Structure formats: C-alpha cells, structure tokens
C-alpha cells in the first residue's frame, strides 16, 4: 500500500512531454501511483516494463463543483458509493477543506469510510504549502 501513498500528477506542471516522462519515470522507481502517462510510455519503450504504474479512481474540481456548494456532501457520498472498495481519492477543497474534513469526512461520512474495504484519500489541491497540509 505504501507504493501508492505518493501519487504523481507531475505532467500538469512541467514544460514538456520529455520532462514529464523523465520526472515521472523517476517517481516510478519508488512508487506505483501515477497519472503521468508519458512516464509509462518511457518505462515501456526504454525498459520494457509493460505496466510500470497505476492510477486510482479520483474526483476533480469540476466533478465536485458540478453538484453545487449545497450538495457537496452528496457529491462526496456519491464517490464512496461509486467506488465501495479499494483506494479512491476525492478532491475536497472546492469550497472549504476544513469543513469537508471536519463535518463531511470526519462526521457525516465517517462510519461509511470506516466500514468500506479500502482507503479514502482526501485531496487538498490548493492552499499554501506546507501550511495547508499541516493544518
């Protein structure tokens, strides 16, 4: 499971496909979670690795905000219903990451999370680092 604790979204913030591929391949030396497809192509082409990494079901801001602020809890509940087992990641800072963690994940959905066979990754995708993570 530790092989999925650091997921590579690096393609978003680099200057080229080549830098995404090489950086992502470096990530795959130690971890298996990646959304950087260029790294998987590099691993196959240069190292003969048929499947160097994997992705997981994950929401994004558009899939969460499409429910509207008033239905954010329903959107989160839906993610758990759609993916009842395994690892699932849910972006949780569309409106208020602290409310999402304390009220939604930590209270309203807590028993559902504890009963499911898998792990929930709560993703804070914005804010000042490292403060947002430490808070």
TrEMBL record:
Annotated GO biological process: NAD+ biosynthetic process
Biological or metabolic pathway of the protein: Cofactor biosynthesis; NAD(+) biosynthesis; nicotinamide D-ribonucleotide from 5-phospho-alpha-D-ribose 1-diphosphate and nicotinamide: step 1/1
Gene Ontology molecular function, alphabetical: nicotinamide phosphoribosyltransferase activity
Enzyme nomenclature, EC number: 2.4.2.12
Keywords: Glycosyltransferase, Pyridine nucleotide biosynthesis, Transferase
Annotated Nicotinate/nicotinamide phosphoribosyltransferase domain residues: 4-128
SUPFAM superfamilies from the UniProt entry: Nicotinate/Quinolinate PRTase C-terminal domain-like
InterPro entries found in the cross-reference section: Aldolase_TIM, N/Namide_PRibTrfase, Nicotinamide_PRibTrfase, Nicotinate_pribotase-like_C
Residues making up the signal peptide according to the UniProt record: none
Domain of life: Eukaryota
Family: Belongs to the NAPRTase family.
Protein name listed in UniProt: Nicotinamide phosphoribosyltransferase
Species, as recorded: Alexandrium andersonii
